[in-house]
Amino acid sequence: MNPICKVLIVDDEILVRQGIKYVLDWEQEGFQIVGEAANGREALNSLQTLQPHIIITDIVMPVMDGEELTRLVKRDYPATEVIVLSSFSEFHYVRSTFQHGVADYILKPKLEAGALLQVLKKTRERIPGLSGTGGQTEAEAQPLDTLLGRMLAGYRLPPESEAYVKQLLPHECFALLGWEPAQPAPGGEAINHTAINAVSSDNAMNHTVINAVSSNAANAHEAASATVVTAVNGELSRSVPGLVQCVIPCAEPSGTTFMLINLEEAHGPQLLEAVHQLADTLAGQEVELRLTLSRTFSSLGELAAVQQENNARLQQCRFFRPEQTLLIQPERPDQGTALPKFNLTPFTEQLKRQQLAEAFGDLHQHVDALSRQNDGDVYQFKSFLGNIIFNITNQFSHLQELEEGKYGLFRAIDEADTAEQAIRILDDYLSRIMELTLSAAPAPGSNANMTKLLQYIEEHYAEPLTLTELARHFHFNPSYLSSLFTTYNHEGFKEHLNTVRTGKAAELLRAGEAPIAEISSMVGYGDHSYFCKVFKKYNGLSPSGYRRQHYGQE
Hints:
five-stranded parallel beta sheet, elongated, alpha/beta, five-stranded mixed beta sheet, 51% helix, DNA-binding, transcription regulation, transcription
């Protein structure tokens, strides 16, 4: 039985790398993919750690191409064999790589399982030391993280491999700890391929081997991941007796790295406390990270299902609570409080009657409630917003601008990274409708909501009133409320508040002997000089001049 032959894949196209990874049952054929890189420079940086026997590399790549990579590999790692991938048009590059000692080449159009396996086996025969197992079984020749990665991908391990995994993970309780950038960078490439292989020896002592694997991320993300590895290894091992931990290699598009934790069930509270402490330790890092801890489970057969649950919770957290940096999945999924469905019929009737303030006010309250759900569904949330825009646009189909722009809005909402971004898109859309449809504004007070707003200002003008506070009190969005106020009242919120306040101040100046500084405070102005400036703007005289001219007229 031959020992495992380690392979590194190098190609700037992620689809090509994925195709190579899944075209063969690598372990069954005696090979193991130990890493991947997007260019020659990344591959070189990982060789010392990964020590692959074979490199499969593309020719044309950014940063460092395959020809340069081959030359440097054969200079510094002469025992490592190189297989070149190329297209027909690049064959002149392939000829030059043979001068540097490339083992073989494969044309990309001919890349299929049989041809690749033939070249791999032929190349393996050139490598000394790959005969004989040294007493290891086939299962023992594979690292723990590789076996767990296969389980995570849905493969069922053969009985001898399952027994080997159980030997390395002896405790009855498992959990998944994950970390990722709190604001994932667009592009989808995983930022961290750091693997921690933790195995337990016969004397029950843990030996953690940290292997730095190739990364396609910026240096800052690499540094952050290294910090996490160090902190996780230290904090968990120190706090949870007998704990075994192993990072699972998986291509998470968000950049999430998952670590499997194996512990005694009685030590669950210590794990929870350690994760909270870990979050405190990592707080304030240059690259802010989000930590996640799954529910505990008792069988590795649940591994894939638990990761899917964790990913679903992560997706919700990224969208609805992007600021949350510690996410602990409850033992029982939170069902939440079912919200009533939005009643589209009265909403449509209000649109037909041009009662936009009432319709949009109800809509904002419902959308705000949807965005505050702990277990909200991202797809359903975006679908609801898209459906609302579709229905509103149909009601105002005579407005060509809305009809032409709706598909752009659908795309923008679909691409929104957070609920806040999606709601902002909706707010701008509703404000634009108000501008287009209510140019002929009705008289002040003819709208029920407007009447309530004006009455509230009349009763609370002496308080430190702001548009944001008013919007929060009436459950409106501030930008929408500003547009509504201007439309129905012929002046903005700030202008109207100043009108009310200076009017009340004029009454006090005419009626009594209260000091002007006291009057400014009584009508809501904390700054006396600012009050005098605003009063003169609205009344044509300074407060003292107004009092001299109008005193005693009340």
